[in-house]
């Protein structure tokens, strides 16, 4: 006879590992989920350059394996537990996130795509009198058909655009997340299509996606090694591939108007939220590694030595004289990073931006980043109020506990786990 009490006790405690593969390093966090509460038990961090010496595909595969193994071992040692069940995250140069808008317009009792002229079923507006809506309110089937059409067309447009950019076929793109974030009818936000009518319907859609050559081993024409097969060969069970933005969506209920910056190793990702809706996702190719490089070039240090010096500087673990000299060098990279950010914000829009910045990622730890965001010359870019900067950390995420001293560098990994359905 099956011991149901034993099975229940087993399910009360679950162990998971978040494996975050960035442009510069691999980060690992081990989580325990017990009775609905999530705790971080241990973490690990390992940089690729410790093992990189050649640039052949075979060697790159070994670099990935060794770097992952070292980061996992470090997390296991700190936590005292082991698990092979992982949630997988990638840097934004691999796993992309984008928002896209689509509009439908009523014409001859049908809603048509304004640009593509794709027909979808009509829907009806709620009326005060029940007799006016009887037999006219859209049912679940009709609503499903509308959503299916909107998501299909959004997926098609994104795939065609990204495929052209990467030089691959649209069918060689794998979508991980595709959801409608917002629906408006005649400019008014509505929770559902059921029972509505109007001249125009607008949709905001979120998509996360990546090239299939990272997922499958039969794409031999590409330089990048197939990461997913490599991870499976190492004995890990991949539960889901997630983008940090999915975890950020719940955060926007607390801070509906914000600019969030994920400053990674080589890329900074920008998330613009207004009225609780994710409006734009963009990125530019400057990150924490560029700050290390300027120290390396000017002080004659190896990349590893320069990175360690940068970390000590961020922790204020240097003499005041050393900090002043290093600060002068880092201001050069900070200015270049700031120029890249302003250029991207101009591309995103010309309106008034939210004044609250939430920064995270390894590059966010440099004090110069916070300083230039609050005191820098924004030129023609307007904010509702003078910019204020906060670090996005574990305490800002619902139902996640940690006592191992995580910083904003670990936030992308926390967001990857926070995004999993049922984890909070």
From TrEMBL:
Per the UniProt entry, what are the Gene Ontology biological process annotations, in alphabetical order? cell division
The record places domain SHS2 at 16-251
Q: Which residues form the signal peptide?
A: none
Concerning SMART domains, the annotation shows: FtsA
Protein name (database record) = SHS2 domain-containing protein
> Which source organism does the UniProt entry give?
Candidatus Nealsonbacteria bacterium CG08_land_8_20_14_0_20_38_20
